[in-house]
Specification:
5 strands; mainly alpha; 2 domains; two-stranded parallel sheet
Length: about 425
């Protein structure tokens, strides 16, 4: 049987007064959330970080909102699955708590409150600088620095919060990446008793953890695209200095963050393809673009062949060049090559015949698309070109594994030399459907 709102309110009140572990499940009514939020924020204010955060919020007009339902504008559908978020703009800022468990809600305030304090630090040290309007690689690095600092401090505040030991226990028991980060902090601190070393260990782990990278690469790529940042002239931001400021110089490797981002941060394949498509399209339309996303590795490459087929199908159907013998030959050869590679499960690498065939095919198609000023086809060709150019660097395979893939492809090429001709696209479609 569900608790009434009054019963739920009583449980919420009981936790913060008696420090008992309880679950808080709202019954669907928004009445009373203001009172519950006040209890939550008053308790937060009694912690060392909470006192500072609440004081700064009052001085800078930041609203704190407790809304466990996290309803969308229509009042029906949940807008987010996140525990909370900090919304920042030129004229307002708001710290939202969505999680309906009082222990997690209190811990979440440490994380989102850190994001609020981060913006105050940057506004003071980088007056007038827009940290959103940067190249994509720095956009991702900046936001992952925000998260690394927030996760490190959230776990540290929980670890040393003797009045609310449930906070760290909840983090450590979590089956999500929170549990792993909490273990990293605790293990590092117990070895040396050094808070800065424990903070740094969690900071680094945020960049290396694949689950964190998967979530945030999707989240921040969508933000980058929805805000239309790729359309802007970009600022240059000193990321190393930013790290020093946000970490209060606790993080000792600020100049390594961009390298760590390229080497250790494993991007979502879906996000990489989305940003590749949008930036290629915009560059063809305006002659201005941002290809810095090419530096990122991808978490899992599902199927190079399928992605290449999609590029080719689009171009074949939209580029009017059927009467050109060179284009027709290039199409037949590239279809045959990709079909054979797919059928025989041969990896595509930077040194094999498949990439050479694809580059030649793009060159032939681009001549006709440029002559006809076919922006749609030119954009798709640029997208395919960047996909092919990063065929090795996007993959997380180590040097040994990549070397083995290259050798397998080259051995296949020696045994199956490319021949003039090949099968027609229509025949390929037929064989693909039958497979």
């Amino acid at each position: 049987m569900e608790n009434t709102l009054d019963e739920t309110f009583g449980l919420f009140l009981d936790f913060f007064k008696g420090k008992k572990q309880v679950n808080f499940y709202p019954n669907g009514s928004r009445a009373g959330y203001a009172e519950m939020g006040q209890i939550l924020f008053d308790e937060f204010k009694n912690t060392p970080f909470g006192e500072k955060c609440m004081r700064q919020a009052a001085e800078n007009g930041c609203r704190l909102v407790f809304n466990p339902e996290a309803l969308a504008a229509d009042g029906k559908e949940k807008r987010t699955s996140m525990q909370g978020e900090f919304l920042y703009g030129n004229r307002f800022s708001r710290l939202n708590v969505y999680v309906n468990d009082p222990v997690k809600a209190l811990s979440n305030l440490d994380h989102e409150g850190t994001h609020f304090i981060q913006r105050l630090k940057l506004a003071k040290s980088f007056p007038g600088v827009n940290f959103e309007n940067v190249d994509f690689d720095k956009f991702m690095a900046i936001h992952m620095v925000f998260e690394a600092d927030a996760f490190s401090r959230q776990i540290e505040y929980a670890y040393f919060d003797r009045d609310h030991p449930e906070k760290f226990a909840s983090l450590k028991d979590s089956k999500s990446f929170y549990g792993h980060l909490a273990e990293v902090y605790e293990k590092t601190y117990k070895v040396g008793g050094n808070k800065n070393e424990a903070y740094t260990a969690v900071f680094d782990e945020v960049f290396k953890n694949k689950d964190i990278a998967e979530f945030y690469s999707n989240n921040y790529t969508d933000q980058y695209l929805n805000m239309g940042i790729y359309k802007n002239r970009h600022n240059d931001v000193n990321v190393a200095r930013m790290v020093q400021i946000l970490s209060d110089k606790r993080y000792k490797k600020p100049d390594k963050v961009m390298t760590m981002m390229a080497d250790s941060f494993i991007f979502s394949e879906k996000a990489w393809n989305k940003v590749n498509s949008k930036n290629s399209e915009y560059e063809v339309l305006t002659s201005r673009g941002d290809d810095t996303y090419k530096c990122f590795k991808v978490k899992s490459v599902s199927d190079d062949y399928s992605q290449l087929k999609n590029y080719m199908k689009f171009v074949f159907n939209n580029n009017k060049s059927k009467k050109d013998d060179a284009v027709r030959l290039s199409r037949r050869r590239v279809w045959k090559t990709v079909y054979d590679y797919s059928k025989d499960k041969i990896p595509i690498t930077a040194e094999g015949d498949c990439k050479k065939e694809l580059i030649e095919w793009i060159r032939q198609e681009r001549k006709h698309a440029s002559r006809d000023d076919n922006k749609k086809v030119l954009a798709k060709l640029l997208e395919a070109e960047r996909f092919i150019a990063t065929i090795d660097t996007r993959k997380t395979a180590g040097n040994m594994a990549l070397s083995a893939q290259r050798e397998k492809e080259l051995r296949y090429n020696r045994q199956n030399p490319r021949k003039t001709g090949g099968i027609s696209p229509s025949s390929y479609y037929s064989q693909s459907r039958q497979a």
